[in-house]
Amino acid sequence: MLFVAAHRAARTRSALTLDRVDPVTKRTESGNDYLTINPKGYVPALELDDGEVLTEGPAITQYLVDRYALGTLAPLSGTIERAWINSYLTYISTELHKPFGRLFDPALTPDARASTIAYLHRRFALAQRQTILSAKRLPPLGPAIADGPLA
Ligand SMILES: N[C@@H](CCC(=O)N[C@@H](CS)C(=O)NCC(=O)O)C(=O)O
After folding, report:
1. What fold, for 2-55?
2. Class level of CATH domain 80-145
3. How many other C-beta atoms can be found within 10 angstroms of the C-beta atom of residue 49?
4. CB–CB of 136/83 below 8 Å?
5. Sign of CA dihedral 121, 102, 94, 60
6. 42 CA closest ligand 1 atom index
7. Which of 14, 59, 108, 113 has the fewest CB atoms within 10 Å, i.e. the most exposed one?
8. 97-106: per-residue pLDDT in tens?
9. Residues enclosing ligand 1, CB less than 6 A?
10. pTM here?
């Protein structure tokens, strides 16, 4: 079971069973309290058949690739090419995604909003440069797992 944001589930094509989470009530569409599944409260979370729950986007995507698409959507674990992918996913998660979320905070002051936007501009410029560099260094893989979060 993959828990995703309420607005995303409809757009996601996947062999996984999906359950939407209401971001305000933290109830799942199937009627469960999401906080009992993932106390962090945010999505995504992946619940395995044995009940194990994995959170954090970069960990989930890499787990799914290694388990179900070995060597096709990402370079093999333990290679420097895979470490670049991991680095890029972590960058997206921490340097782009999180500050972006602040912009939706109604309590954000105009000054804080302006400095967050300036920060994001710098970070996106670096991401773009890095993407161009990576494209030259990574083996051709077709759609890669790092494309997902930026799509
Ligand atoms: N560190 C997490 C962050 C996930 C995240 O911020 N998810 C957003 C949706 S894109 C969310 O659920 N926000 C609601 C909340 O934080 O309560 C990851 O990389 O997976």
Report:
1. Glutaredoxin (3.40.30)
2. mainly alpha
3. 6
4. no
5. negative
6. 12
7. 14
8. 999 999 999 9
9. 5, 23, 41-44, 56-57, 93, 101
10. 0.81
* Ligand 1: residue whose CA is nearest its atom 9: 43
Phi then psi dihedrals of residue 45, to 5 deg: -145, 145
Question: In 73-105, which positions are buried (b, 16+ CB within 10 angstroms) versus exposed (e)?
Answer: bbbeeeeebbebbbebbebbbebbeeeeeeeee
What is the token pair recorded at 143? 């759609």
Q: What are the structure tokens assigned to 86, written together?
A: 């991991």
CA of 47 to the centre of ligand 1 (A): 16
Whether residue 147 is predicted with pLDDT greater than 90 in this model: the reply is no
Q: How confident is the model at residue 144 (pLDDT cuts 50, 70, 90)?
A: low
Domain ranges within the chain, ordered by starting residue: 2-55, 80-145
